[in-house]
Write a structure and sequence with these properties.
Blueprint (H helix, E strand, L loop, with lengths): L20 H19 L24 H10 L3 H6 L4 E2 L10 E2 L20 H6 L3 H24 L10 E2 L23 H16 L9 E7 L13 E2 L3 H8 L1 H8 L5 E4 L3 E2 L2 E2 L4 H11 L5 E4 L3 H7 L7 H11 L12 H6 L5 H17 L22 H14 L1 E5 L12 E5 L23 H12 L4 E5 L14 H13 L3 E7 L12 E2 L2 E2 L2 E2 L6 H11 L5 E6 L7 H6 L2 E4 L7 H9 L13 E2 L17 H4 L4 E3 L10 E9 L8 E9 L5 E11 L10 E10 L4 E8 L5 E3 L5 E3 L2 E8 L13 E8 L4
Parallel strand pairs: 3-4, 4-6, 5-7, 6-9, 11-12, 11-13, 13-17, 17-18
Antiparallel strand pairs: 1-2, 7-8, 10-18, 14-15, 15-16, 19-20, 21-22, 22-25, 23-24, 23-28, 26-27, 28-29
Helix pairs in contact: 2-13, 5-6, 5-14, 6-8, 10-11, 14-19, 15-19, 16-17
């Protein structure tokens, strides 16, 4: 970095002139005259740019396409190639600052120091709240800009200090064994797509000229484990599954959300590396969907093309394949071989220009080449980071993400008559697991134990709170205290209490991205069973045997088969990895200060034996849309402390079959407490002659109702919902009868519910 500062002199004293100093004194005025030119070469020159009519790429009044083209023409081949890796170096002569494209913001600005940490993505999906998702993403982008502005003031341009974020992860959580499923919005393409659109819009902002930040939808495409095979597996779903499950959420994110970045995945698809697939990155992404942004590889994915997939044999050939297929930016450094590829005539400089122009278009849309005061986002202060408003939003998000799975005999909320409460379990006092993965560092975390303690202290009710860990998370991890001693202590504590709150579940140490872990129930970040670890199950059975009422609070990132617990415990709460305010939110639900209304974004199966092979990407027998076997808790399920009733479902179908179908339904709070309800609309094609989903979510809305309050909800179902993939693998309209349901979940009668549902059959005419 050039960092020459003008020195100020108040005067000189007279001293003998040392040998050689006189020429320096004579040269000093010349140095001062040339100093501005030296200063213009600073790594951070772009920060202080002013409009320049003579240099087109520095003129903010010109179209960005023209500006980016002008900049590319001024660059050497080496300079262009250097800009195609995530750690792009500075080019001082062109006022280009160093920039690192790799940044994370899955549920808060991650890996960059202090930040507000919201619930993990799977928990955010459980809130089923588009407005909340948009507000959270907007808050994340405000903190991102505030941190970026501060980094610039410090002249920092390192990893995790930029504005281009590798979020959201919108892969389909097709199998609960996948360790990274916690990063997704669940198993349904429509729910995932709706939340992705709001996240993208919140992250990128609505300024007509500048992005606040840039969102990257990932991992494109057909990527969801196993983690241990992600660098070499080859997915082969049929075209119907590809188009109806693996692509819709990406299409929504691009066409409606306007995401300006896409990350291609590690794996192969139909024999082609995803980062070297012209079908994915050009035919579908750009030609079919009209994508205008840039594509970035997953980190190390270009290496995989030649080292693990063995599609080509050399790094230069891998780089050429990726660039020519449409991958503009590499995370890591195989693209350094592009220069030798040009020399061998494997690729042209013009093809490299196309990629580099897309990258500088993005940086210009972020305002990086414009005067600081012309970009309003540059004024966002650092005080926005970890602000009270954002901390309150983290608490709201955590509350809304909690799902009440069972509540027999109105065990919850806990009453005021209790005198002694026991909190037991390996997840009760673990602050790290609250944050999931891809997380930032909050100023404060509240564990379940701390949240319950604070709640009881605030009530000044004289309740005694007892705590013991009871067991370790899982066998295979260090056990500083003998398991038998821990269990005996837990049983003793339980017997002294009026009610026991068991905090069990999983941990990001057990499920996650390519973890170096191979212990019973877990392999490489994935799970090999859906059960809770045996240590936890044994403790649950022992505590239940005391006869005390037991409330099970689950903290995990994927579905768990708590079959015995569902049959024998009176209350079960799913809290996910709830973020920095998780403990407060859990206590609010347990003691009735918040009425839970989260809904499951995934199916809870009864056993891993109910699932197809993990590596099979066919959708048959997976997710609520195609699975027909027994389930523990269905997708969309969740209870409340109040009840709701749906009535007067009305449907208006278009006469020509080309317009949206309109629905109206009345929902009323028929209980004694105010609360939220999540209205869900499902669609089933009755007359389909090819495989179609059992049912598909097509609309939803979370609403708040006071006791006795009612409202009429209106929904529109787009005509695309009434299409299917025919035997020629083409999407065509499907006329005929459809079953449409409206209610607080799927039209099932297998579980107690907080509401009813209504079903109506309608006929969609042939398109005229």
């Amino acid at each position: 970095m050039f960092n020459i500062r003008r020195r100020q002199f108040s005067g000189f004293r007279t001293f003998p002139t040392p040998p050689g100093l006189l020429p320096a004194i004579i040269a000093f005025p010349i140095f001062l005259a040339l100093l501005p030119a030296f200063q213009s070469c600073q790594n951070t020159a772009a920060r202080n740019l002013r409009p320049n009519d003579t240099i087109p790429y520095l003129n903010p009044d010109l179209p960005i396409d023209q500006r980016a083209g002008d900049l590319i023409r001024r660059m050497t081949l080496d300079e262009k190639i250097g800009q195609m890796t995530n750690a792009a170096p500075a080019i001082p002569r062109l006022h280009i600052a160093a920039y690192n494209w790799w940044n994370e913001s899955l549920h808060g600005v991650a890996r960059a120091g202090l930040a507000t940490v919201y619930p993990q993505a799977i928990g955010l999906a459980a809130a089923w709240d588009e407005d909340l998702h948009f507000r959270m993403a907007t808050a994340i982008s405000d903190e991102a800009r505030a941190k970026y502005n501060d980094f610039r003031r410090q002249d920092k341009h390192e990893l995790y200090e930029g504005l281009t974020f590798f979020s959201p992860n919108i892969n389909i959580f097709r199998d609960p064994r996948w360790g990274r499923g916690q990063e997704t919005y669940g198993e349904d393409p429509y729910l995932t797509g709706r939340l992705a659109v709001q996240f993208i819009k919140g992250l990128q902002g609505d300024d007509p000229k500048y992005f606040r930040t840039i969102a990257t939808v990932k991992h494109f495409a057909v990527h969801s484990g196993p983690e241990s095979e992600r660098h070499f597996f080859d997915a082969h779903p049929d075209e119907r599954d590809f188009r109806e499950t693996y692509l819709p959420q990406f299409e929504m994110g691009i066409k409606e959300g306007k995401a300006f970045s896409v990350m291609c995945a590690y794996n192969r698809l139909y024999g082609q590396a995803c980062c070297g697939s012209s079908r994915l990155l050009t035919t579908i992404l750009r030609n079919e969907w009209g994508f205008k942004g840039y594509v970035v590889s997953d980190c190390g994915a270009i290496d995989d093309i030649y080292e693990r997939h063995k599609i080509v044999s050399t790094p230069d050939s891998a780089a050429v394949l990726a660039v020519r297929s449409g991958c503009d930016l590499e995370c890591l450094n195989t693209y350094a071989h592009l220069k030798e590829a040009v020399a061998k005539s494997l690729i042209t400089e013009a093809e490299i220009d196309t990629a580099v122009k897309r990258l500088f278009t993005a940086r210009m849309k972020l305002g990086m080449f414009d005067p600081t005061d012309s970009v309003s986002f540059n004024q966002i202060p650092y005080s926005d980071v970890d602000s009270k408003q954002h901390r309150d939003l983290a608490l709201e998000s955590a509350r809304k993400s909690i799902v009440l799975l069972k509540n027999a005999q109105h065990t919850l909320p806990l009453g005021k008559h209790l005198r002694t409460i026991a909190v037991i379990g390996p997840n009760a006092a673990d602050s790290a697991l609250l944050l999931g993965n891809y997380n930032g560092t909050p100023s404060k975390t509240i564990t379940p134990l701390e949240g319950i303690r604070e709640k009881l202290n605030a009530q000044t009710s004289g309740v005694t709170l007892l705590y013991t860990k009871g067991c370790e998370l899982v066998a295979g991890l260090p056990h500083p205290v003998p398991a038998s001693k821990m269990r005996d202590s837990a049983i003793s504590v339980a017997r002294q209490s009026d009610v026991v709150i068991l905090c069990m579940g999983l941990s990001p140490r057990l499920e996650g991205e390519e973890l170096k872990l191979n212990i019973p129930g877990f392999k490489g970040g994935d799970r090999t069973t859906l059960d809770l670890p045996k240590e936890q199950e044994d403790l649950i059975h022992a505590i239940a045997a005391t006869g005390k009422p037991v409330i099970l609070v689950l903290l995990n990132g994927s579905a768990v088969a708590v079959n015995w617990e569902n049959d024998h415990l009176p209350a079960i709460v799913e809290a996910w990895y709830p973020g920095q305010a998780g403990g407060t939110a859990i206590a609010d639900v347990l003691f009735g200060d918040y009425n839970p209304a989260g809904r499951l974004p995934v199916t809870f199966y009864t056993s891993v034996k109910d699932l197809p092979d993990f590596g099979d990407y066919a959708m048959a027998g997976r997710t609520y849309r195609y699975y027909k076997g027994p389930i523990l808790y269905p997708f969309g399920y969740g209870l409340s402390y109040t009840t709701f009733h749906y009535d007067s479902l009305r449907i208006t179908t278009p006469p020509n079959g080309t317009d949206s179908v309109h629905l109206a339904v009345e929902v009323k709070n028929t209980g004694h407490l105010e609360g939220d309800e999540v209205a869900q609309i499902y669609l089933t094609a009755i007359d389909a002659r090819v495989p179609v989903p059992v049912r598909s979510l097509r609309a939803f809305r979370r609403v708040h109702l006071r006791p006795g309050g009612a409202m009429t909800l209106h929904f529109s179902i787009a005509p695309e919902a009434f299409t299917y993939i025919d035997d020629n693998m083409q999407r065509v309209p499907l006329a005929g009868r459809y079953s449409i349901s409206a209610g607080g979940g799927q039209p099932l009668d297998t579980r107690p519910a907080a509401s009813n549902y209504q079903v109506i059959t309608t006929t969609i005419p042939k398109r005229s």
